Amino acid sequence: MTPAVIQLAAEAAERQSAEVTDWGARISWVVGLLVFIAFVYWLMRQGWKWRGALQSDLPELPAAPSGLPEHRLALTGRYHGSTTAGQWLDRIVAHGLGLRSRVELTLTDAGLDVVRPGANDFFVPTAQLRGARLDKGIAGKVLTEGGLLVVTWAHGDKLIDSGFRSDRAAEHAAWVEAINHMNSSITTEGAER
Prior knowledge:
Blueprint: H1 3-16, H2 23-54, E1 71-84, E2 91-92, E3 101-108, E4 111-115, E5 122-125, E6 129-135, E7 137-138, E8 141-142, E9 148-155, E10 158-166, H3 172-192
Antiparallel strand pairs: 1-2, 1-3, 1-10, 3-4, 4-5, 6-9, 7-8, 9-10
């Protein structure tokens, strides 16, 4: 081999074996990124707790009375959260109302029983139901038009919208009709007295 070929081979070998990773800098960047992500999650948690503290005036959620009458309607699906009525982005987090979960809804003559595995169950007496509608979104969840069953109810001095999505979305219309019919018959009875 000629000296020029040997020199070219040595230069090629030197280029291939060059240090490509600065491990100290890479580890520093990864640690910095993990600290930043942890800080953002901590800030989000603090915001959630702050929102809960602001809503601490909301009374405890009522529990279902024993011996509920036979149900009119029942569904299983998802609970997507509750907001201040008419303000679909003002999420209510007090008493676990902000936690998404599976749900089993039962509508009886006594009211609406909301059973949420892994979260707080609650009951809305018939006198507290204000109406129902089909909507497309509630804080943190947007669906197609009419994809969400929103039930409006009174709790303390506050009107609340709670969003539900049935496993079978075709059931939503029957729920809207039944709850609104219950509400109109309560209003009519109250006007007659």
